[in-house]
Amino acid sequence: MSRFLLMLCFLLSSATSLYAADQQLANPRTMKFPALNFQIPKAERVLLECGMPVYLLRDTELPIINMTAMVRVGSVYEPAEKSGLSGIVGSVMRSGGAGGLTPEKMDDELEFMASSVESGIGSDMGTVSLTSLKKNFSRTLQIFSDVLLRPEFSEKRLEIARRQTVEGLRRQNDDPKEIAGREINRAIYAGHPLGNIATFDSVRSITRQELVDFHSRYYRLNNMILAVSGDFERTALLKELNQVFRPVKYPATLALANIPQPKELLQGALLYGKKDVNQTVIRMGHLGLTKDSPDIYAVRLLDYILGGSFTSRLTMEIRTNQGLAYSVSSHFDIGRRFTGSFVAETETKAESTGKTINLMKNIIAGLTKEPVSDDELTSARDYMINSFMFGFTTPASIVTQRARLEYYGYPEGYLEQYRDNIAKVTRGDILTAARKYLHPDTFKIVVIGDAAKFDLPLESLGKVRELDLKLKIPKQ
């Protein structure tokens, strides 16, 4: 028995030594892996008899069908005096009943089928989406098409939406982060529809007829794209779609208003909003670029290096080295139809407000003075290339992405060439992009907090314009 125990101990000791040796050889910092081979999934594009493009991707893993309609509409097309109109249209299309169904009956029927139909309108796109069990798809599709093309806009549900929007306006200054986000957007897009916000007067003035007119102007079969994924039979699905979306002769040709690109005013601004809080909210930025810029790939890597990762320059210096903030980041929102924005943001204790603002500006300016390091470029490039595949995790995301590329007019082969274009970016390309798209001296800076507690007077950072955060609620 003792001999057996000795032999067992010897074997365990040998195995431990071999394991330790293997561990020394398997250093994760020096390990090499073969290149990731990932083929981008395809989706079929078909034109319905009415002329509407449809993207299809069949997936039989679950007996579920998903559908999304993308409509060329948005808040940029609403009159400034009616700000909030598109958001209410997008909401009440679904909540206000459609195709002869009252709101209550539609809610009950969808719930009974375990189906979902949702609608909404953003700044430059309207969507109506459907999720249904395969066995209930035909009925859910009919409700979907009614919401999309024949909404009732119940006066009662309109009033509910109007009151909810007004209540949101009443609370708009409760959260310092929401104030800062709203005001930096208004400053960057001053004088452009993207900078408009709803007011008590604009929301209360919205009528049901204005919802009907706005909807009928833009929700046409020749002004939308469909994306469908899930457990369907191709021939049967196309037959059903052609039956539901029959060709229509519209009384007039749709002419989208020509919305100009926002103009960059190369002039900084310092906006201060007083809130009695111990933590200051900081936002700074200006206009950025559009998807049509040849610099978008360099900007994507610049984004990651500056403030888009946990090892970014902003995070490492402001959070890790200085301990001035728990979270700090920056982001280029590359515009698809209109020029996007660059915004850097953080929250810090009031007593370090001035120091943090100056440090953020200096870090950002540093990228315009000399190239990034080889390690920074390699890390950013590897992350962008290897994480690319996570944009295709579900059939719904794949087919929707394909439809979005057409909706926004991306060039043919954009996805297929994306990784190669990222791999081609050099340190010099990033420096050129930084000098072209980062101008810290012209930042619009929004500071929300208590200036009496700041480490530096705001006036030392520039001319201050104080925001009026007192709500002027008109009498009903």
State the gist of this model.
The protein is an alpha+beta fold and 476 residues long.
- What structural class do the secondary elements suggest? alpha+beta
- How do the strands of the widest beta sheet line up side by side? 1-2-6-3-5-4
- According to CATH, the homologous superfamily of the largest domain is Metalloenzyme, LuxS/M16 peptidase-like
Q: Any idea of the CATH topology of the largest domain?
A: Cytochrome Bc1 Complex, Chain A, domain 1
- Please tell me the CATH architecture of the largest domain by its name: 2-Layer Sandwich
The profile of the biggest β sheet is:
6 strands, mixed
The radius of gyration over CA amounts to 27 Å
Structure in words:
The chain has 476 residues and is α+β, with helices and mostly antiparallel strands. It folds into 2 domains: 201 residues, 2-Layer Sandwich (Cytochrome Bc1 Complex, Chain A, domain 1); 198 residues, Cytochrome Bc1 Complex, Chain A, domain 1. Helices cover 41% and strands 16% of the residues. The chain contains 16 helices and 12 strands. The model has no long low-confidence stretch (mean pLDDT 92).
